[in-house]
């Protein structure tokens, strides 16, 4: 308990200036993402291949329910095994969103 409080106090003293938060000394991945998002909203540009990548992810996520429905209809043992490994569209979108956000 005491070490937790000391660690918090140490973290507060290291990050006394908010402009130093995403730095080599104090890496904060979430702060870096928000900093990039703020730059994007204020006239920045997206990386080059974001639009095709998002279009491909949308196509795969849209196809997943149809693939699952097809596998449910054919009722073979191999189809049931394959269906168990298909992610849901929402799970796919959450994972892809996390992947995209951490890359810029």
Structure report:
With 104 residues, the protein is mostly helical. It has two domains: 1-45, no CATH class; 48-104. It has five helices and no strands. It has helices at 2-14, 29-41, 50-74, 77-85, 89-103. It is elongated. The two termini are 36 Å apart.
Walk me through the topology.
Blueprint: H1 2-14, H2 29-41, H3 50-74, H4 77-85, H5 89-103
Task: Give short descriptive properties of this protein.
104 residues, mainly alpha, 5 helices, 0% strand
Q: What is the arithmetic mean of pLDDT? A: 75
Main sheet summary: none
List low-confidence stretches. Answer: none
Tally of distinct domains: 2
Helix and strand content put the structural class at: mainly alpha
Radius of gyration: 21 Å
Count of discrete alpha- or pi-helical segments spanning 4 or more residues:
5
End-to-end CA span: 36 Å
What is the N-to-C succession of helices and strands?
Answer: HHHHH
Q: Beta-sheet strand percentage?
A: under 5%
* Dominant shape: elongated
Residues in helix, %: over 70%
The total count of strands amounts to: 0
